[in-house]
Amino acid sequence: MAAKAAKPKTNSEDYLRMYRQMVRIRAFEDNANQLYLSAKMPGLTHMYSGQEAVAVGICEALTASDKITSTHRGHGHCVAKGAEFREMFCELLGKEEGYCRGKGGSMHIADQSNGNLGANAIVGGSMGIATGAALTAKLQKTGDVTVCFFGDGATAQGLWYEVMNMAALMQLPVIYACENNGYSEYTKTAEIAAGSLPARAEAFGIESFTVDGQDVLAVNDLTQKLVARARKGEGPFFIELMTYRYHGHHVGDINREYYRAKDEEAQWKTERDPIVNFGKWLESEGLASSDELKSVQDEVHADAEAAVKYALEAKYPDGSEVDMHVYAA
Amino acid sequence: MREITLSKAVNEAIAEEMRRDETVFLLGEDVAEAGTPFKVLSGLVEEFGTGRIIDTPISEPGFMGMAVGAAMTGSRPIVDLMFGDFIFLIMDQLCNQAAKTHYMSGGKLSVPLVLRTNMGATRRSAAQHSQSLHALVAHIPGLKVAMPSSAYEAKGLMKTAIRDNNPVVIFEDKLMYQDKAPVPEEEYLIPFGVANVKREGSDITLIGTSSMVQVAEKAAEILAKEGISAEVIDPRTIVPLDEAALIESVRKTSRAIVIDEGHQSYGVTGEIASRLNEKAFYHLDAPVLRMGAMDVPVPFSPALEDLTVPTPEGVAAAARKLCAGEMIHAA
Ligand SMILES: Cc1ncc(C[n+]2csc(CCOP(=O)(O)OP(=O)(O)O)c2C)c(N)n1
Ligand SMILES: [Mg+2]
């Protein structure tokens, strides 16, 4: 098996890149939310804000040819796996230059050339796909690892238990990454998940880990180790990442006090923000000054605004594209 | 008469039947406190409690299967499936289990359950949240399929469905939840298999299901201005289908277009058209036309999505040609 190792994150350049990627996700989402609020975006979208350290911590431990599968809350995974703002905003607005030529929109956004096998609007729908991608890696000895992102709510899907069993039997290089943001739509996780999630994976003999999903370094360290082991045939693995979504379930979920207290939201935002806290750490370690961090933010925000402007003016796909791509040539 | 939304009509129907029959209960995702993402069931949990309005995890095959078992043992479950697209997840429980139990048991067991779900594109929700999959279910013997076209039908058909001793699938158009229609205060039921003539006409019959009834009505208005008199019929249930009413109309008008939001190929439009061809052939002056959704996964981009569904203008244009004796699909 061709051993590939992601570059170890030991220098400040890598740390700054992680910081920048998290800021990019937040900026993308803030702009997407504005597009929704100003009625410029068709349909609805699910914001990733608050969960940045998960996508970035994990994807920074992967190479471009490693695969991921994403979810309805997939903008963060997409950015973290190397996507560009322009093509993403174009997709969000249904424009021809979008990553999916406008056919997918927010819930299916993916930069396929960077190993993103797609965002899925069926909760749990990608669990088989991710495991199958790992099967290819094993059969064709590509050395690639697949990370399957899904939410806590998705652990209720039976498909997961079928594929975990097979992945364990076949020792596939797949990492099941459960982003436990405390809520499954409008319901607390505790009300929809019996017992413990890691214990479920352990029942299949799958090594399981729980990590603070607001701490990008903790996520990255763990993922690097697991990716290296998965490449050696020691997979599969399960990680439960404890995190929080800042917005409602989707952008239209504004009045949500009936299921989630404002105080709780405020507490996560002020005390546990993954970007602010990582920025503070970078400063305290002397790896970056507050001016440097500020200029990263300014650059990213300017990029995002330019991409939004570009996407708003970009053209829609021609009507003749409607029956293109139903079948592969 | 008072006017209420389709959403409220469904809510009332379920509440009335739950008051009437305590074996009726409802289960699905975020149905209780949240009252579903479309807020259709708001208030029910306050009246009936979490024992009868049951929130489930995201385990569609699991809770569908539980509903089948509950129905076989004296309960009358209503399953809430958040999007019609998720029907693919529950196909085994619905089609291999619920649909066949009565038959396989030689009539000894029955499965009185209602699966309420939705359909309809143009909500910019892309390919996995926009499908109209009723034809798949209608294909399976043992399942009844209702397609309400307004708040009035939504209430009357839901009440009938809950009292039916078979598995019934109701497809509500998710874009119509806020549409209002006159709905009586007094109790009423709409029997299955009885079509509704929405508008009388003599030149052509437009048969529409669900929101396509409105498309047909708008097309009829366009045509009326040109002197073409279109009859509009809503079958209301596609299983059972009121074939007699459709045939009678076509005998009178001698032309027909069938409009439905499922994919055109192998769909409801083809089924109804071929029944008319078989049973009203000598009364027809033109081939019966099918107008379904385009045979493509529903695209996200508004520029593409709007092309995939039948429109009043499209229906009127086709009707015009049929009435002028032009061949639409020349061999
Ligand atoms: C099979 C299926 N069932 C239900 C839904 C509707 N739905 C979309 S997201 C969601 C909640 C998912 O919760 P979780 O997995 O925790 O992800 P999160 O939204 O928190 O990121 C639900 C029920 C769906 N898209 N697919
Ligand atoms: Mg969640």
UniProtKB/TrEMBL annotation, chain A:
Residues 20-317 form the Dehydrogenase E1 component domain. GO terms for molecular function: pyruvate dehydrogenase (acetyl-transferring) activity. Its EC number is 1.1.1.-. It is an enzyme of class 1 (oxidoreductase). GO terms for biological process: pyruvate decarboxylation to acetyl-CoA. Keywords: Oxidoreductase, Thiamine pyrophosphate. It catalyses: N(6)-[(R)-lipoyl]-L-lysyl-[protein] + pyruvate + H(+) = N(6)-[(R)-S(8)-acetyldihydrolipoyl]-L-lysyl-[protein] + CO2. The pyruvate dehydrogenase complex catalyzes the overall conversion of pyruvate to acetyl-CoA and CO(2). It contains multiple copies of three enzymatic components: pyruvate dehydrogenase (E1), dihydrolipoamide acetyltransferase (E2) and lipoamide dehydrogenase (E3). InterPro entries: DH_E1 (IPR001017), PDH_E1_Alpha_Subunit (IPR050642), THDP-binding (IPR029061). This is Acetoin:2,6-dichlorophenolindophenol oxidoreductase subunit alpha. SUPFAM superfamilies: Thiamin diphosphate-binding fold (THDP-binding). Pfam families: E1_dh. Its cofactor is thiamine diphosphate.
TrEMBL record, chain B:
Its EC number is 1.2.4.4. InterPro entries: THDP-binding (IPR029061), Transketo_C/PFOR_II (IPR009014), Transketolase-like_Pyr-bd (IPR005475), Transketolase_C (IPR033248). It is an enzyme of class 1 (oxidoreductase). Residues 4-179 form the Transketolase-like pyrimidine-binding domain. Keywords: Oxidoreductase, Thiamine pyrophosphate. GO terms for molecular function: branched-chain 2-oxo acid dehydrogenase activity. It holds the Pfam family Transket_pyr. Its cofactor is thiamine diphosphate. PANTHER family: PYRUVATE DEHYDROGENASE E1 COMPONENT BETA SUBUNIT, PYRUVATE DEHYDROGENASE E1 COMPONENT SUBUNIT BETA. This is 2-oxoisovalerate dehydrogenase subunit beta.
